[in-house]
Write a structure and sequence with these properties.
CATH superfamily of the largest domain: SLC41 divalent cation transporters, integral membrane domain
Radius of gyration: 30 Å
Largest sheet: 4 strands, mixed
Number of strands: 7
Distance between the termini: 68 Å
Shape: elongated
Order of helices and strands: HHHHHHHHEHEEHHEEHEEHHHHHHH
CATH topology of the largest domain: Tetracycline Repressor, domain 2
Number of helices: 19
Strand order of the largest sheet: 1-2-3-4
Helix content: 55-70%
Length: about 425
């Protein structure tokens, strides 16, 4: 259906709307989920409220919630009033969760069975209820108190003796997650244990729904979008959206504030240079190597930040490991700094042997200053790059982990380091 959605999205909207309306309701719902958010809104505007409500009833509850929450409140209320009572309650139940909690993206529809049923009875229940479920890869087994105790795959059920009890073939469940847990952690569990669905429970271990692997992929895409935008100091809501369908003004609003803030901080570099204008004018040779030092610092800092962010996202490290991370990055930076410092020293001696230097100085001294400045810059930039993502875990503004922020800091420290060494 995604291919069909991509095809009709190229048609004039009026033609697309006509084609959409002649499809059966089930196909309309399936097509609706594959359209971009902007096209979904235009479809909603073109249909009667009752028709929109019918489509919402045929969507998975989590998809209906996403669509409704993107609409104005008065329009939400109007559509909700036309939705079937049971579907409405499911939508309201999912809407109570905060954005980012796995409960907001779970699917309430799943097959739950008593552990005392025979396989023959289980097969009949699956046959009758399967049509209403989003996925039936697993059946979840409950005890007498309706608490989750295990699960059984369809394969295990179909291959079992019809007279055997479900409790005898089920796998006792030790992989589930509370509905208020961060959705990224839930997606990571699906990846880690290679699951097709993850049961979502309340605080009493009663199953509320499941997170399917395709919804987990959506979570991963959203989290990746968020991480990339944070790294580039893009503010606002970090939701996955097509580049072309996002308005120019929204792009300006998300990028502008941090660009302005960082530009103001960047003036510090000019202020420092102006304060030591006489010194730098006497050692004009330094200007030839300032960009090399800044580039090296920016590169190692970005590498350090990227590696730490990757480890944080995969759960390999947590904020408790901050000192281990910093010590490891310090050792790495020292090796890199020594190698780059030697290279810079030799580069100055061989490439700038004909340059003019002040009488009280020598090319050897200037080469030493540049190499020391590069060593200090590599070490400090690496440590800054490692600290910023960890600072994000302390609930500091997420944009603080951004690559442009790191670049600005590196530029400032590079000038300070070089001037101090020279003095």
């Amino acid at each position: 259906m995604q291919l069909f959605a991509d095809t009709i999205a190229t048609l004039p909207f009026d033609d697309m709307a006509i084609l959409f309306k002649i499809l059966p309701l089930e196909k309309q719902a399936e097509l609706f989920t594959d359209l971009s958010e902007s096209l979904q809104h235009r479809i909603i505007e073109a249909l009667e409220t009752e028709h929109v409500a019918d489509i919402m009833e045929h969507l998975a509850a989590d998809e209906a919630v996403d669509t409704l929450q993107s609409l104005p409140e008065d329009e939400q209320a109007e559509i909700m009033s036309e939705i079937d009572v049971n579907d409405r309650e499911e939508i309201r139940m999912l809407s109570q969760y905060e954005e980012g909690e796995v409960g907001a993206v779970m699917t309430p529809d799943c097959i739950t069975l008593s552990q005392h049923l025979k396989i023959l009875e289980v097969l009949e229940i699956i046959r009758v209820t399967a049509k209403e479920q989003e996925t039936i890869y697993y059946c979840y087994v409950l005890d007498d108190n309706k608490k989750l105790v295990g699960c059984a795959s369809l394969k295990e059920i179909f291959l079992s003796d019809p007279n055997v009890y479900l409790k005898d073939i089920m796998k006792y469940n030790d992989i589930s997650i509370n509905s208020h847990t961060d959705q990224e952690k839930a997606a990571n569990l699906i990846y880690k244990y290679d699951l097709l669905a993850l049961p979502i429970t309340d605080k009493y271990n009663r199953i509320l729904g499941i997170l399917t692997y395709d919804d987990a992929l959506g979570v991963v895409k959203q989290e990746q979008t968020e991480d990339i935008e944070k790294l580039m100091a893009i503010g606002g809501e970090h939701k996955y959206a097509a580049y072309l369908s996002t308005s120019t003004w929204n792009h300006v609003k998300s990028r502008g504030p941090w660009v302005i803030v960082l530009a103001m901080f960047g003036l510090m570099t000019g202020t420092i240079l102006h304060s030591y204008e006489d010194v730098l004018e006497a050692f004009i040779i330094l200007a030839l190597y300032m960009s090399m030092i800044a580039d090296a610092g920016g590169t190692v800092g970005s590498q350090s930040g990227t590696m730490v962010i990757k480890a944080l996202v995969t759960g390999e490290v947590t904020f408790r490991d901050v000192f281990k991370v910093l010590f490891k990055e310090f050792k790495i930076s020292c090796w890199l700094a020594v190698a780059l410092g030697i290279l810079a020293f030799l580069k100055v001696l061989f490439l700038s042997h004909a340059s003019t230097v002040p009488m009280a100085s020598s090319l050897f001294m200037i080469a030493s200053v540049i190499s020391i400045a590069l060593v200090l810059q590599v070490v400090t930039s690496t440590m800054i790059g490692a600290v910023l993502p960890l600072a994000d875990k302390c609930k500091i503004d997420p944009a603080v982990v951004a690559s442009p922020v790191l670049t600005t800091i590196v530029d400032i420290t590079e000038v300070i380091t070089e001037v101090i060494n020279l003095l």
